[in-house]
């Protein structure tokens, strides 16, 4: 079966590189959650996308803050960018999204993969959310399907469905740059975990190989970096060629079965992310908090002995 969306993504990247039609990318790294937020813009029209924003959250006090997000807003205003997209590569389990705050201040349509509905169904059950919590993705403005166009100003863009870490993961290819969420990490760190509800190591391998079929020079922008042993700096940009040559989990030559065995063994050693409970409850609602109770306070729940 030919992969028509992938073929279009490859053609788009080759054309973008030939014409120099490439987005400018500025990244902001949140050391508390190891998350890279990317702001990509078309240098001609200044139309821009914010990809995977972070709301500061202190789990001890339950207090949120927009300190980090406001730095991004300052950069966008200073550069005169026009935000057209607020993009989530998936429903994150390690940080709260700041998309509603950024959208309020800057606009842009909030988009995520259409399989968010599966994630909402799974976590809606886990958190015993009431009927006020819609499981139809209606908290988002756009639900992306594989192969959908995601243009940014004069730059063409395409969304690729890359499930495995979660069912709803999407990669966004804009010009020559691919924003790949939680699939691959830096070559010396490997790949994203695949053991959350709905995750699947075999699916993750296939998604990763799909991304690695993009041209070797394709710029890859990652969602996280944790530094690898022996490395002192956080890094969130690499290329397809570097991943194929050196990724410790999925360099060229690693078979699907080898990857699944390795990924599954590693996942069995990992604890749940520190902010999983608050993150998922907020992010499954498009970054919005649950409705306030009758005293006006909003609460997050913690299901005991469930995950
Ligand atoms: Fe994630």
From TrEMBL:
InterPro entries the record matches: Metallo-B-lactamas, Mito_Persulfide_Diox, POD-like_MBL-fold, RibonucZ/Hydroxyglut_hydro
Position of the signal peptide: none
Keywords: Metal-binding
Pfam annotation, one family: Lactamase_B
Keyword Metal-binding: yes
A GO biological process held by the record: hydrogen sulfide metabolic process
GO molecular function: metal ion binding; sulfur dioxygenase activity
The Metallo-beta-lactamase domain, residue ranges: 34-224
Protein name: Metallo-beta-lactamase
């Amino acid at each position: 079966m030919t992969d028509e969306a992938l073929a279009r993504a490859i053609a788009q990247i080759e054309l973008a590189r030939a014409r120099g039609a490439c987005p400018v990318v500025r990244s902001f790294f949140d050391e508390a959650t190891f998350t890279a937020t990317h702001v990509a813009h078309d240098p001609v029209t200044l139309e821009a996308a914010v990809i995977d924003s972070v709301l500061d959250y202190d789990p001890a006090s339950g207090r949120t803050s927009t300190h980090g997000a406001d730095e991004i807003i300052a950069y966008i205003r200073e550069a005169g960018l026009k935000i057209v997209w607020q993009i989530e590569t998936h429903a994150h389990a390690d940080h709260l999204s700041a998309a509603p705050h950024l959208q309020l201040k800057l606009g842009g349509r909030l988009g995520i993969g259409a399989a968010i509905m599966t994630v909402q169904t799974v976590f809606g059950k886990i958190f015993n959310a009431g009927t006020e919590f819609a499981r139809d993705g209606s908290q988002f403005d756009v639900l992306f399907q594989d192969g959908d166009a995601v243009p940014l100003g004069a730059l063409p863009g395409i969304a690729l469905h890359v499930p495995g870490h979660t069912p709803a993961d999407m990669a966004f290819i804009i010009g020559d740059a691919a924003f790949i969420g939680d699939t691959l990490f830096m070559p010396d760190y490997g790949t994203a975990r695949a053991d959350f509800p709905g995750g699947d190591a075999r699916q993750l391998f296939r998604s990763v190989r799909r991304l690695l079929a993009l041209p070797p020079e394709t710029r890859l922008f990652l969602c996280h970096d944790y530094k690898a042993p022996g490395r002192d700096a956080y890094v969130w940009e690499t290329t397809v060629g570097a991943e194929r040559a050196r990724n410790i989990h999925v360099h060229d030559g690693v078979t699907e079965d080898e990857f699944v065995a390795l990924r599954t063994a590693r996942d069995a050693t990992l604890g749940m992310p520190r902010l999983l409970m608050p993150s998922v409850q907020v992010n499954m609602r498009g970054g919005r908090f649950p409705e306030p109770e009758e005293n006006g306070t909003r609460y997050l729940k913690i299901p005991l002995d469930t995950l």
